[in-house]
Amino acid sequence: SQTIHQWPATLVQPVGSPLSLECTVEGTSNPNLYWYRQAAGRGLQLLFYSVGIGQISSEVPQNLSASRPQDRQFILSSKKLLLSDSGFYLCAWSVGSNNEQFFGPGTRLTVL
Amino acid sequence: QKEVEQNSGPLSVPEGAIASLNCTYSDRVSQSFFWYRQYSGKSPELIMSIYSNGDKEDGRFTAQLNKASQYVSLLIRDSQPSDSATYLCAVNRMDSSYKLIFGSGTRLLVRP
Question: How confident is the model over B57-71, as pLDDT tens digits?
């Protein structure tokens, strides 16, 4: 069966510091991978998605970036965090044309 | 007009009752429809997928799709306090098959 891991689970970072969140998927090959952000009490905002190694599509211009160095690894980064980057960051995967997406446990980021 | 609309709630039902959650979408080319359950502080969990008009049943859950009316609903029979959560509707558009469009969610409260 497939599993998806995210770490860290929680993170408190000062404004201006760098960020690296990691997501890995097990039990499937060549998945589509996604990064979402959910602000407190808000809906899901798609940040990036990837259909293969090195292929990244950005949905929202911002100070975040994503990379996919391996088939089942997806990384979200920032060089300098802003207060507005606080939120719940979710990684998801899907395979097949129906696009059923399955979410990881998430990383709760607080920028102070 | 939002692409996917849900009543934010809260929808309050007594234990044992049927909870009816509704979702409308604006794009007629949408082809796949999903319901996610999100407990407070947790990541969304896929509970139902539906692709063709009509009803789809899975245990206490029934998803209903009417593409002509651009309407999808989720019925929860014999509601339990453990069903209390936010339910997210998501739609996959044919012209952007890698992306899901999420509604903002309906909060369900099941009273013991």
Answer: 999 999 999 999 999
Nearest residue, CB atoms, A99 vs list B43, B100, B102: B100
Where does residue A103 rank: exposed (0-12), middle (13-18), buried (19+ CB within 10 A)? buried
Instruction: Summarize pLDDT for A62-108 with one digit per residue, the tens.
Output: 899 999 999 999 999 999 999 999 999 999 999 987 889 999 999 99
Q: Do A98 and B43 touch (CB under 8 A)?
A: no
Are B100 and A101 within 8 A, CB to CB? yes
CA B40 to chain centre: 17
Rounded to whole angstroms, the Cα distance separating A87 from A103 reads 16
DSSP state of A85: G
